[in-house]
Design a protein that fits this description.
Blueprint: H1 6-35, H2 42-98, H3 113-116
Region (Disordered): 99-127
Transmembrane segments: 12-29
Coiled coil: 46-73
Amino acid sequence: MNGLTLQHVAQIGLAIACVALAIYCAVLARRLRRLNDLESGLGGAIAVMTSEVSRLEAALAQTRREAAGAGAQLAAAVENARNERALWAIQTRMAPVSAPGAGVRMRRRRRSDSDDAPSGAEVSDVA
């Protein structure tokens, strides 16, 4: 071992480090290939998610259009109801004017005992 110098030890260490680094790179390359596989890896998941996002965006746009249409129909229905209410209020106000006997019915007042007696007579209570 007298021929083994410090320079030889450094070169052997470098060679071992290079072999270990080559093995590590090969393992990483294999993992990266599996990760980017479109069938089962992350690439496939990304492709599926992209198509789902596109589908959901289309569904959201359709829902917004339908909601806007429903809002417009609701606004029209509310406006129609307000008009009907105003028309009904006008008709109820005008009804007594147009039909003289159809208005408020008046009751005859009951005559009290003092109204029945002649104007100069007094009413006496006999018990």
